[in-house]
Amino acid sequence: MTTAATMYETPPLDMHRQPNEPKVWHVCVDGGDSVGPVSANQLARGVRAGKVPSHARIRHETDTFWSDVLDVPAIVAAIKQVSAASEPPPPPPSPSLRVRQYLVWVPGVDAIGPVSADQIARGIRAGKVPPDASIQRVGDFFAQDLLEEPEVIEALKALA
After folding, report:
1. Are 33 and 82 contained in the same domain?
2. pLDDT at residue 47, rounded to an integer
3. Has residue 11 been placed in a domain?
4. Whether residue 35 sits in one domain with residue 81
5. How many domains does the chain have?
6. Last residue of a domain, one of 54, 86, 118
7. Is 44 exposed, middle or buried (0-12, 13-18, 19+ CB in 10 A)?
8. 106 and 64, same structural domain?
9. Residue 137 forms part of a structural domain
10. Which of 73-77, 86-90, 127-131, 135-139 has the lowest mean pLDDT?
11. Residue 35: how many CB atoms within 10 A of its CB?
12. Contact status, residue 97 vs residue 111, Cβ threshold 8 Å
């Protein structure tokens, strides 16, 4: 039974939602029914939580055509913001380059790993890992260029 006291209670606050953030996005997965409207922040949290797959299609309420969720700069920025706000600070760099914490992405091949920075450096020297490959720390959302990772550079220098 609804009483006057419960009817006027303040709804719980969503600590992740930006104040007055417009709900203007619609999401569709694998040709199913679309969901929305939702805000960019809600969409980003859904991607981060694994509830919205990275191959989902989205559409701004003013657009006619659908786009891949990761092709929309506003959504990618929201994902990065949600990821930075929800993750604890990264652990201090390991003194050992032998910790298996990376996945290596080479076009046309499934991800390889987890491997250590030392293994990646030896693979580059042996010609088995192309220097233009991408790597991703286990648990991270985004990959980066292989030669942008300081631990890989340090491991390459140690082999010299």
Report:
1. yes
2. 82
3. no
4. yes
5. 2
6. 86
7. buried
8. no
9. yes
10. 86-90
11. 17
12. no
Task: Name the pLDDT band for 17 (thresholds 50, 70, 90).
Answer: very low
Domain with 42 in it: what CATH number? 3.30.1490
Calculate mean pLDDT across residues 89-104. Answer: 66
Q: What are phi and psi of 28, to 5 degrees?
A: -140, 135
Give the pair of three-digit tokens for residue 120.
């990646």
Residue 57 corresponds to which tokens in the numbers above?
Answer: 């299609």
Percentage of the chain beyond pLDDT 90 is 9
CA angle, 81 as apex, 116 and 49 as ends, to 5°?
70
- What residues have CB less than 8 Å from 75, skipping those under 6 apart? 25, 40, 43, 44, 47, 58, 69
Q: Look up the domain containing 49 and give its range.
A: 21-86
Q: In which order are the strands placed within the sheet that holds 144-145?
A: 112-115, 102-105, 134-137, 144-145
Task: Identify the sign of the CA torsion 14, 141, 60, 27.
Answer: negative
User: Which residue type, as a one-letter code, is found at position 59?
Assistant: R
Task: Select from 159, 75, 60 the least CA-distant residue to 117.
Answer: 159
- Looking at residue 65, what DSSP letter applies? S
Could you read off the pLDDT of 30-49 as tens digits, one per residue?
777 888 899 998 888 888 87
